[in-house]
UniProtKB/TrEMBL annotation, chain A:
Record-linked InterPro entries: Cyt_c-like_dom, Cyt_c-like_dom_sf
A GO term, aspect molecular function: heme binding
SUPFAM superfamilies hit by this protein: Cytochrome c (SSF46626)
UniProt-listed PROSITE patterns: CYTC, PROKAR_LIPOPROTEIN
Source taxonomy: Bacteria, Pseudomonadati, Bacteroidota, Cytophagia, Cytophagales
Domain Cytochrome c: 61-151
Name listed for the protein in its UniProt record: Cytochrome c
Pfam families: Cytochrom_C
Keyword vocabulary terms for this entry: Heme, Iron, Metal-binding
Organism expressing this protein natively: Spirosoma telluris
Automatic annotation (TrEMBL), chain B:
EC number: 1.7.2.4
Location in the cell: Cell envelope
Pfam families for this protein: nos_propeller
Protein name: Sec-dependent nitrous-oxide reductase
GO MF, one annotated term: nitrous-oxide reductase activity
Domain of life: Bacteria
Gene: nosZ
Principal location class: other
Annotated region (Disordered), positions in chain: 645-664
Enzyme class: oxidoreductase
UniProt entry keywords in alphabetical sequence: Copper, Metal-binding, Oxidoreductase
Length: 154, 664
């Protein structure tokens, strides 16, 4: 038994030196994390909305859907009158902002706060980033319809 | 025999001295020269593997990135976790319910990651509770414990939660044999007659993962230590290491170390299924809890089950066989092909390797060496493929590199030893710091190991890190095994006491990792989906607060009309729908923990006020620039007070008339 212990101690004292160097550089190149996998999930913002076509009269179904979403996901911070709560009140928002701007604030808030001067001004005012509330593009479109209705359009 | 035990203790003692007195001079420098580069994961980059570690006596599971050794998460399983409210919130309390009532702690030893066709599929992790026998299933999408099943007729659920190659079964076998639960009042001295070692085969529903005990094998009273399922050609069989075949019930240290050979048990579980179909099973009374967490109601339910199916091998021939294995076997590991079963006798001088083909032949030719309590014992020579000679001292566990080699951990001689499965020759050995228990190779227990790294989880830390008083973090070491020689790359400290761990390619998990719970899918009974649904409802002395949280306020945040003697339930719904925006909730003087609420989720904190006064509440998880403002007040009035129940947020009170008088 003693002999074995001595052998083991000898083995313990043997170290390893010199081996090929690939390591971190190779790993960085291999990028084991697929960046596409991280951004393609539905919770992450979609692509930029470039053009929104509005029609009259208002789409009643969309207004109703927008109201339902407002109650669950928006009403905590936005009043329907001019009062600023956490975010600005919505009265008059459809005359102040283009529908594309509104939809991108809902769907692409990181992009808007990164490059849109008006959005940046609002952040300075409110100090809370407009949260991503995980709306689909169709749902965001219904918000525009609900806002138009809130602004008195028929 | 006692002499031999003594000499082993002497060796351990000698090694202990060497650790403190004369540790290897180059212990700090015995690393590969490019080690730093190999473990460096640049800021913002992700690790290549997830490593799921059992937490041992902390009762949790922890998640590390490999090769960086960075800790990513602790998943609470069997122990309460005040940090996020696990076991404290009303929704999670039922998860820790047992036939003994609520138990806040256990000892989680082993991990199994779910498999399909013998390979990791990234769906679930399983963990065992060693103390009050249970098995847990953890979702690898939410990284949360979804299910806990208690095991009747069992003690010391150590040989668990090992799984079959398509996750058909998770096994749980008893290390501390006990009499059946409903026949327990017997003298301890009647061990051989009355004590049994039950092995539970827990079926896993393929889609949902739901667990249920399919059957329990009623085995003689011995200790089942570890287990592995057969794979490939040996799929349909399960192998269990057994010790205390002496059937001692006292001073096991000596009395369970008498025999030169104990056993590995081979169970033909496909045969067991046939016997069940033939009606050979017997349903017996039992009492055990089954707890399930529902992701849509964000709540757990605990059900007590009152019977269990059992199979008695004495009535079912050709179901189980013992194979002699030197000596007090611990690890029992099956190679990727399913042909070789490696027994690691922790007091043995050799590592025996058994051949599945030879086992089948020995069974066919009835090459028996007597029987143990009526169960045939196969002849050692008939089932042995060969022995690894002089591998080291105190072999415990073996994993496989996928290139025909095995790596075994040696506790007493504190090293990992690589050997070839075919010719049984030792190829390489590296020291560990110090005295490893388990080891893990990514994919190591599957049919397709990834074989790039091996990680040793050590039992002794001593001088590896800055000292932190008498209690030290358990130490792990990462080695590169991609070449002929194993190379030490990294030390990393761990939490709790990791026993077994499994590592899995990140790609199998990260794409499925859940980011939020959709508020539309929240079916919690007390959810407030939007501030319009926020309210306070009194039902006798119970007050339910339907409260919402969003950056950065609670609704309601002013509540009056609570009375002493009330039980207040704060049901917090987080209205956020963005990744990584949890809110927290705490109440001054609450005899409870905080709760963390993930986006879209509802969680409940129960509070019983103990005095009259104004009680602040606040958000505990920094959520925005105005997080400090995320607070509120609750007024507690005496019992029988007539203060009406009111609640609000953002209500501005009219000026006090008294103030006007002063101003005039």
């Amino acid at each position: 038994m003693k002999k074995t212990v001595t052998l083991v101690l000898l083995a313990l004292s043997v170290g390893w030196y010199g081996c090929s160097s690939d390591g971190a550089k190779q790993r960085a190149e291999e990028a084991p994390t697929d960046p596409a996998a991280a951004v393609s999930q539905e919770e992450i913002h979609g692509t930029e909305v470039k053009e929104v076509v509005l029609s009259s009269p208002l789409d009643g179904a969309m207004v109703k859907q927008g109201k339902g979403i407002y109650d669950v996901k928006c009403g905590s911070c936005h009043r329907l009158d001019e009062t600023k709560l956490v975010g600005p009140g919505w009265k008059g928002v459809t005359s102040r902002r283009k529908p594309e701007w509104i939809m991108n604030m809902i769907l692409n808030v990181d992009m808007m706060l990164g490059k849109d001067a008006e959005a940046q001004k609002l952040l300075e005012l409110c100090l809370v980033r407009m949260p991503n509330q995980n709306l689909s593009e169709a749902e965001a479109r219904s918000m525009v319809e609900f806002m138009r209705s809130n602004d008195g359009e028929k | 025999m006692q002499l031999r035990s003594l000499s082993i203790f002497a060796a351990v003692a000698a090694l202990g001295i060497s650790l403190t007195g004369c540790k290897p001079k180059d212990a700090g420098s015995a690393i590969a020269s490019d080690a730093a580069e190999k473990v460096y994961v640049a800021p913002g980059k992700h690790d290549e593997f997830y490593n799921f570690l059992s937490g041992g006596f902390n009762g949790q599971m922890s998640v590390y990135g490999i090769p960086s050794g960075r800790m990513l998460k602790i998943i609470p399983v069997f122990s309460v976790f005040p940090e996020n409210g696990w076991g404290y919130s009303e929704e999670t309390k039922p998860m820790l319910n047992t036939s003994h009532g609520f138990i806040p702690w256990d000892d989680l030893h082993h991990i199994s990651l779910s498999q399909t066709k013998g390979e990791h599929d990234g769906r679930w992790a399983f963990g065992n509770a060693n103390n009050t026998p249970r098995v847990a299933r953890i979702s690898l999408s939410t990284f949360r414990t979804e299910e806990i099943l208690e095991l009747p007729n069992s003690g010391g659920n150590h040989s668990s939660p090992f799984i079959t190659e398509n996750t058909e079964y998770v096994v749980a076998s008893t290390r501390f044999s006990v009499p059946p639960d409903n026949q327990g009042d017997v003298p301890i001295s009647t061990f051989k007659k009355n004590f049994k070692g039950y092995i539970s085969f827990i079926s896993v529903e393929p889609k949902t993962g739901r667990l249920s005990i399919k059957f329990q094998l009623k085995m003689p009273g011995i200790s089942f230590d570890l287990a592995r399922a057969g794979k490939g050609k040996s799929h349909g069989w399960f192998f269990f290491s057994c010790y205390n075949t002496e059937q001692a019930s006292t001073l096991l240290e000596v009395n369970a170390s008498q025999k030169d050979k104990d056993f590995i048990l081979a169970v033909n579980w496909k045969k067991a299924e046939e016997y069940l179909k033939q009606g050979k099973g017997k349903i017996v009374p039992a009492k055990y809890a089954h707890n399930v967490y529902d992701e849509s109601t964000h709540s757990a339910n605990s059900t007590i089950i009152n019977e269990v199916m059992t199979l008695d091998p004495k009535e079912c021939p050709d179901l189980v066989y013992f194979m002699p294995c030197p000596k007090s076997p611990h690890g029992c590991d099956v190679d990727p092909t399913g042909e070789f079963i490696v027994g690691s006798g922790k007091l043995a001088a050799v590592i025996p390797v058994f051949s599945f083909d030879k086992i089948l032949k020995a069974i066919a030719s009835k090459s028996y060496d007597g029987n143990f309590d009526g169960i045939p014992v196969l002849k050692y020579e008939s089932v042995l493929y060969g022995e690894v000679q002089k591998p080291g001292l105190g072999p415990l566990h073996t994993e496989f590199d996928g290139r025909g080699n095995a790596i075994t951990s040696f506790f007493v001689s504190s090293e990992l030893v690589k050997w070839n499965i075919k010719d049984l020759k030792v190829l390489d050995r590296v020291p560990t710091y110090y005295s490893p228990g388990h080891l893990s190779i990514p994919g190591g227990p599957t049919s397709k190991p990834h074989g790039k790294y091996v990680i040793a989880y050590n039992k002794i830390t001593k001088d590896r890190y800055l000292p932190t008083g008498p209690e030290l973090a358990q130490s792990a070491q990462l080695y590169d095994i991609s070449g002929d020689k194993m190379k030490l790359l990294l030390d990393f400290p761990t939490v709790g006491e990791p026993h077994y761990a499994e590592a899995i390619p990140a790609a199998l998990i990260e794409k499925n990792s859940k980011k939020i719970f959709k508020i539309e899918d929240n079916h919690h009974k007390y959810a407030a989906k939007g501030e319009k649904e926020a309210k306070v409802v009194r039902e006798g002395n119970k007050v339910h607060v339907y409260m919402t949280a969003i950056r950065s306020h609670f609704t309601p945040d002013n509540i009056e009309g609570i009375r002493l003697g009330d039980e207040v339930y704060f049901h917090l719904t987080n209205l956020e729908q963005d990744w990584d925006v949890p809110h927290g909730f705490a109440v001054k003087g609450s005899n409870n923990a905080e709760i963390l609420i993930m986006p879209g989720e509802t969680q409940t904190l129960k509070w019983v006020p103990d005095r009259v006064g104004i009680v602040p509440i606040y958000c505990t998880d920094f959520c925005s620039a105005l997080h400090q403002e995320m607070q509120g007040y609750v007024r507690v009035s005496p019992a029988g007070s007539t203060v009406p129940l009111t609640f609000s947020t953002g209500k501005v009170n009219p000026p006090d008339p008294a103030d006007k008088v002063v101003k005039k």
